[in-house]
Amino acid sequence: MEFMERGGCTLESGQAARPQLPDCGVIVMQSRFQADRRLSVRMGTTLFLLGLLYVAFVAVLIVLLKSWVLVVVVAAALLGAQYWFSDRIALYAMRGRVVERDEYSRLHGVIDRLCATADMPKPAVAVADMDMPNAFATGRNPDHAVVCVTTGLLRRLEPAELEGVLAHELSHVAHKDVAVITVASFLGVIAGLVVRFAFYSQLFGGGRRDQNTAVVFSAVMGVSAVVYMVSFLLIRALSRYRELAADRAAALLTGRPSALASALTKVSGDIARIPTKDLRTAQAFNAFYFTPALGDHPGAARLLSTHPSLEQRLDQLARISGELGETATPGKA
């Protein structure tokens, strides 16, 4: 593929120039991210089902533990912490730090132009010093959001590819699905903590408890495990769809599905070459990443995946490319 410069911007050979903002980077196809009604319905349905599950879960814990104050206070405190501090927790866990314009002027420039095109507030911009090429967005709403990219991603991607990835992450913020995933994952976190607490409590204190206490803790453990499994599957289903929705929104905003397809192909291939031990640390945050830290799940195991398959994502981008009449072939930009 040959490239040429036009007005300070890099264009593929044979590609007609599209309307652009000054200083290169964003191809203006529409004024803002398109609303996705199917995504909104899925988010509402997931929150409703998880809300019912959550109420039932808390009620069962109160009955079994006979202490509603403890259950409600702990649950409320953890939900509040996860909602208000999710961006800081994610950045800390992934060793990301907020960066200023003088440190990463190109990164800030692309996000500035995308936010102007999408008519949305600019999120905080962060960089994680990791070789794994990836990006994620987090935060409770568009006014309190962070978009973070790794240094490995910045080293590997061409400007148009980086633009596609950042548009993908910004669409998560604009669609508010980042906040929904954060709140939705709360129930799974609580259930997982209860399972661990009950397990270690039985393991280290079982000999000092009567039979009734043991039965109560076993019941708590069993209910928590079921709740965790149900919430896990609901969140995974929503996560897979929201990634397709973000790909679609980013492709339509930039008008370059092929650039996003190229980024997907490149990032997925490069992640596969990173040692597995280095990816396991990042795997806990798979639901927030542009691509999963570890590869696609085969067959029925895809129900456990946070992302649709690479093939499914590329097929969607190819269809969008055809609808837009894009001359480049998706995945070959």
TrEMBL record:
Principal cellular location given in the protein's record: membrane
InterPro entries referenced in this protein's UniProt entry, alphabetically: HtpX_protease, Pept_M48_protease_HtpX, Peptidase_M48
Cofactor note: Binds 1 zinc ion per subunit.
E.C. no: 3.4.24.-
Assigned keywords, A-Z: Cell membrane, Hydrolase, Membrane, Metal-binding, Metalloprotease, Protease, Transmembrane, Transmembrane helix, Zinc
Example GO BP: proteolysis
GO MF: metalloendopeptidase activity; zinc ion binding
The Peptidase M48 domain, residue ranges: 105-319
Enzyme class, UniProt record, top EC level: hydrolase
Membrane topology: Multi-pass membrane protein
Residues of the active site: E169
Residues annotated for Zn(2+) binding in this entry: H168, H172, E243
Cofactor(s) this protein requires: Zn(2+)
TM annotation in the entry: 39-62, 68-85, 178-199, 214-235
PANTHER family membership: PROTEASE HTPX (PTHR43221), PROTEASE HTPX HOMOLOG (PTHR43221:SF2)
Family indicated by similarity: Belongs to the peptidase M48B family.
Designated name of the protein: Protease HtpX homolog
Gene of this entry: htpX1
